[in-house]
Amino acid sequence: MHLTTALLSFVGLLTTAFAAYNPSSSSNIAVYWGQNSYGQSTGSFVQQRLSYYCANSQLTVIPLAFLITISNPTLNFANAGNNCTAISGSSLFYCSQLEADITTCQKTYGKTILLSIGGATYSEGGFSSSSAAVTAANNIWAIFGPTTSGSTVPRPFGTAVIDGFDFDFESTVSNMPSFANQLRTLMNSAGGKTYYLSAAPQCPYPDAADGPMLGGAVSFDFIWVQFYNNYCGLNSFTVGSSTQNNFNFATWDNWAKTTSLNKNVKVFLGIPANTGAAGSGYESGSTLASIIAYSKSFSSFGGVMMWDMSQLWANSGFLSAVASDLGAPAATTVATTLQTVTKTSTSAAATGTAVPQWGQCGGEGYTGSTVCAAPYTCVYGGVWWSSCQ
């Protein structure tokens, strides 16, 4: 091999290594692809094929959105589905373009590619029993995991194998820990590479949909908390303050260290990628830089998640700005904030100030207790109101 060729190969390996998810980094960037939420059917801002985005060196993880049903598996990738063909005998389609792109994204660009399960239209409600959840997990793994000789299951991605699964449930689901744990067991026994599990809870803690999984029942590698469309989102952050009343990254950091089954789990700051990307909560400029610096001061911080790719590409300069913010120094307010979270939780339990059933526990401008009396949890009811249920 010539020296020049060797050097180029080495540089290529470095690019690949730094592009993949790095659990020791606080600068990972994850962006959902698949839903074309910017809504263009033509032009430069219409959702492009997956490999187009993978070529960007600033992206680390790309969850494919979504597998919208589990028991009878169905995919929805918006306009990307137009390049797929139905698989007879199933509700799935085969996507030759995605088969090629997933492999290119992983091997050429070093991206971590997940399949996100759920989404706003998911309505199955989980599973009727733990055994049904395990059976479903085995089927999903057979469809999207490594190929098995002699298997006749449909393979939407052909021989391509994803790097793990993401859970994005917007309503309560039953027996989901059994489903997630079976996937974890199958991934751990597969060998050959590292597989990941992630979840996308909303910021009110504990999350109403993912609560049972996040309550110490499932080992997640990282979660990206949706800090938008909620009273605890980006728009409630107080710039320059060492303590935060509603913006609750500190609460999720505390979850990572005390409740999470995996104490090394990373927490991502979930943000909208554009003004109309996810309802309310979009921030940019110096405000977003302050939020990222504050969040980065927590040891569990793993990076930023954005919704979604089409919105991001229509928001010129935003990705580079976020990458730059992630490279800036962290704020130094974590100790004060973490003490505040701990004291608030302790005093609420000790002094009887926990909120009773149906009482308000959150909302825009709300400054009261956010801790519900057992066994109730704080459930999001709108921008102005969350209550203990």
TrEMBL record:
GO cellular component: extracellular region
Presence of keyword Hydrolase: yes
GO biological process, one term: chitin catabolic process
Family matches, as Gene3D superfamilies: Glycosidases
Gene Ontology molecular function, alphabetical: cellulose binding; chitin binding; endochitinase activity
Signal peptide (residue range): 1-19
One Pfam family cited in the UniProt record for this chain: CBM_1
SUPFAM superfamilies in the record: (Trans)glycosidases, Cellulose-binding domain
The enzyme's E.C. designation: 3.2.1.14
GH18 domain span: 27-329
PROSITE patterns the UniProt entry points to: CBM1_2, GH18_1, GH18_2
CDD domains associated with the record: GH18_hevamine_XipI_class_III
Residues of the CBM1 domain: 353-389
Protein family membership: Belongs to the glycosyl hydrolase 18 family. Chitinase class III subfamily.
PANTHER family: ENDOCHITINASE
Official protein name in the record: chitinase
